[in-house]
Amino acid sequence: MTMIELPCPAKINLFLNITGRRADGYHELQTLFQLLDYGDTLRLQRRPDNLLRLHPELNGVPSEDNLIIRAARQLQALNPQQTLGADLSLTKRLPMGGGIGGGSSDAASTLLGLNRLWELNLNLAQLAEIGLKLGADVPVFVHGKTAWAEGIGEKLSPIQTANSWFVVLKPDCHVSTAKIFCHEQLTRHSSPIKIAAFLEGGNGNSCEPLVRKLYPNVDKALIWLNQFAPAKLTGTGACVFASFQDQETAEAVCGQRPNNIDGFVARGVNTSPLHKALGIL
Length: 281
Ligand SMILES: C[C@](O)(CO)[C@H](O)COP(=O)(O)OP(=O)(O)OC[C@H]1O[C@@H](n2ccc(N)nc2=O)[C@H](O)[C@@H]1O
Ligand SMILES: Nc1ncnc2c1ncn2[C@@H]1O[C@H](COP(=O)(O)OP(=O)(O)OP(=O)(O)O)[C@@H](O)[C@H]1O
Known about the structure:
The chain is an alpha+beta fold. The chain has 2 domains: 3-159, Ribosomal Protein S5, domain 2 (2-Layer Sandwich); 165-269, GHMP kinase, C-terminal domain (Alpha-Beta Plaits). Helices cover 31% and strands 28% of the residues. The protein is built from 10 helices and 10 strands. It has helices spanning 67-78, 102-117, 124-132, 138-143, 177-182, 195-199, 208-214, 216-225, 247-255, 273-278; strands spanning 3-21, 27-47, 52-55, 85-91, 147-150, 155-158, 165-170, 232-233, 240-244, 262-269. Strands 1, 2, 3, 4, 5, 6, 7, 8, 9 and 10 form a 10-stranded mixed β-sheet that branches. Helix 1 (67-78) packs parallel to helix 2 and helix 7 crosses helix 8 (216-225). The longest helix is centred in the middle third of the chain and has 16 residues, at 102-117. It is globular, with a radius of gyration of 19 Å. The two termini are 20 Å apart. Bound molecules: 4-diphosphocytidyl-2-C-methyl-D-erythritol and adenosine-5'-triphosphate (ATP). This is 4-diphosphocytidyl-2-C-methyl-D-erythritol kinase.
């Protein structure tokens, strides 16, 4: 195999509970990662040399900082003697800085795709360990299952959800994950909850009150979407979402959104489209 085209699906955090802070500054959390059947597309083509070329470059992100190139370099470093190169082309659909894991998912698809193209034979646990060095959200995309997560997001237990339809809105602002996690007003010591308590409902996102206060456009989007169904923040934002029983209702709500808010409709899935494309899981 010399070429492969792979999906890079989004995630939303159905809830997010921050329970503590580690000595290295990272936060201990509980969350439910819901994978969606919507995302970027990455085309990977093997090269006869050691070069990595990414097209197009993302606005404001030099190629060497792009998580795709950083993921590929991690794999090259494991096998410095081998000829491992690739042309990578990305069709970007997921808004950046949205809390829907776009960069992390691109990185995971790069790891799984190059593992296949370069015949490295690493297993998912090994790839997830490499992915965790790139970001706390990468392992869930490597494992490819909607999952309950603890630790900093890397201790994963797959869980089946109802595969609802979601409206995801991207208010016109960019939220920095690092800025929210460093903020003195973040609620960072909530009591841990059990899966059963989450399933009974009523759990929100520890970051939401702070993000609403700092970013009025997020607050406005939540108020707007709440007219139709209970709306929540995903990750540290800026995206907000609500679930609907069928596609038609979700499309109708999304279609009425205010002009200054981007949005899309996607179905929740229990298994990643990436893993389906690769024929694993
Ligand atoms: C908030 C979530 O989106 C929930 O899914 C993720 O935990 C964020 O994951 P991510 O974007 O992959 O995060 P990283 O790139 O690893 O970290 C970005 C910054 O967020 C903070 N960070 C992230 C994850 C975490 N559990 N605790 C943190 O404190 C750190 O300050 C870090 O410098
Ligand atoms: N391939 C990539 N796609 C998007 N962003 C990237 C990529 N590579 C590096 N980045 C950088 O990562 C930052 C965060 O992007 P991303 O879209 O992953 O945020 P996010 O959806 O908030 O992620 P998360 O939910 O994991 O916190 C961007 O602002 C950009 O500087």
